[in-house]
Amino acid sequence: MQIDPHTGLLQGARQCPSPNYNARPDPGDISLLVIHGISLPPQQFGGDAIDRFFTNCLDPAQHPYFREICDLQVSAHLLIRRNGELVQYVPFGERAWHAGDSQFAGRTNCNDFSIGIELEGSDELPYEPVQYQQLQAVTRLVQQAYPAITRERIVGHCDIAPGRKTDPGPAFDWARLMAAL
Known about the structure:
β1 (2-3) and β2 form a beta hairpin. By secondary structure, the chain is of the alpha/beta class. The radius of gyration is 15 Å and the shape is globular. The chain contains five helices and twelve strands. The model has no long low-confidence stretch (mean pLDDT 97). The strands form four sheets. A six-stranded mixed beta sheet has the order 3-7-6-11-5-12. The protein has a two-stranded antiparallel sheet with strand order 1-2.
């Protein structure tokens, strides 16, 4: 597994291109890694709803929750599914729309300078061991490709959007991630 420095694509990840991205204001400023948690519908795993959500193809008739979110245009760079599958939606060099209204170390608009990785899960359920293994491996690659992402610059969505977001939630084991970096 490696990141192609020219394309920003993670070799070994299934590619599922999202239209929800644009160019970064400063392509050389990638200095934050944001960990997210997602499940669609909430608390349910598997299926293709996350792919459809990030590609603007979510069917609002399939679940009541989908009616609330189907018009949102969001994405992440990468998803790590419960079985460890890696799915890339946006090349790392581009600006994915994952953070929303956010702030880190006095800077707003974290999408401008961050990489967003989603874990398929929910705030209260433990993430799978294979998800930690994949996240650790991907994080090491991301840090090699973007050395400004230090251990101190790896945060949760809850940290950059407090009061608005709670993911990856209390079930996420930060010590487990950091021990392998």
